[in-house]
Amino acid sequence: MAGLCDLSFLDESGFAPTLPTGSTWARAGTRALVWDEPPQGRRLNVLGALAPDGAAARLVWTSPAGKVDGAVVLEFIWRQVAGLPAAPTDLPPGYRRPRPCVVVLDNGPAHLSRVVTAALPVLEAAGVTLYFLPPYSPELNRTEELWRHVKHEELPTRSYRTLADLRAAVEQALADHAASLATDAATLHDDTSDFHEAA
After folding, report:
1. 48: which strand partners?
2. If you compute the radius of gyration of the chain from its CA atoms, what whole number of angstroms results?
3. What is the CATH number of the domain that holds 178?
4. Is the per-residue pLDDT at 191 higher than 80?
5. Does 169 fall in a domain?
C-alpha cells in the first residue's frame, strides 16, 4: 500500500498532568507516595497522524489550546497530513494531489462532525480519502500504539506541575519519535537505492 498511496493513521489522545503509574519504589515498611496533580484546566489534547511505512514514514501532530473538534481535525488533515496547497475554497479548479492520500481514522465525534463530512467531496476530488474503521477496533489504528508508547515509556516524569511542562515533555517525546521515523525512512531509502543500483 505504501507504494501506491500516502497512508496515514490519525487519532487523538489526552494527556493528564499525572500519568498512570504502573509501579514505584519505597523503603521497606513505608507507604509509597506518588505526586498527583489535579487535571482541571491542565489536560493536553494532541491530534496526530502516523505514516509508519516506507521511505515517506513520518509523524505530524498538533496540540490545540482547546478541544479537538471537527474544525481542528479538518484543518489538520488538510494542511499537515495531506499537505494541500490552499484552503478548500481556494484550491485551483481540478487540483489533485500527485499521489493519492488515505487517512485511516476511527468514528470519533470530531471525525464524523458536520464540518468534516461536508468536506469529504472536496477532499476526495483533491485525492484525499478518509477511511473510517469499524466501530470498537482500536487495534487497527497504528497511532494507538504510539500514544501507549509515549504515555508509558517516553515520559519518565509521571506528574507535571504546569500545562507548559506537560506540553513540552509530550512534544519532545513526539519530536524524538518523528526523528527516529525519519532516520529509519532515510536508511530504508538508501538501502533500496543500493539495491536498484546493483540490479
Report:
1. 11, 61
2. 20
3. 3.30.420.10
4. no
5. yes
Is 65 part of a structural domain of the chain? yes
φ and ψ at residue 12, rounded to 5 degrees = -120, 160
Query: What domain range is 142 assigned to?
Result: 6-14+38-198
C-alpha cell at 96: 489533485
Paired residues of 14 in beta bridges? 45
φ and ψ of 31, to 5 deg: -80, 135
More confident residue, 33 or 56: 56
d(C-alpha 61, C-alpha 56), whole Å: 16
Domain assignment of residue 139, yes or no: yes
Alpha carbon of residue 159 to chain centroid: 22
Instruction: Specify if 33 maps to a domain.
Output: no
Q: Are 128 and 85 in contact (CB under 8 A)?
A: no
C-alpha cell of 70? 471537527
Contact present, 158 and 18 (Cβ < 8 Å): yes
Give the pLDDT confidence score for residue 111 in this predicted structure: 97
Q: Which amino acid is at 194?
A: D
Residue 59 β-bridge partners: 50
Q: What is the dihedral of CA 38, 40, 42, 48, to 10 degrees?
A: 110
> 10 Å Cβ neighbour count for 105?
24
Is the pLDDT reported for residue 10 higher than 70? yes
Reading the block at residue 5, the C-alpha cell is 498511496
Note the pTM of the prediction, 2 decimals: 0.82
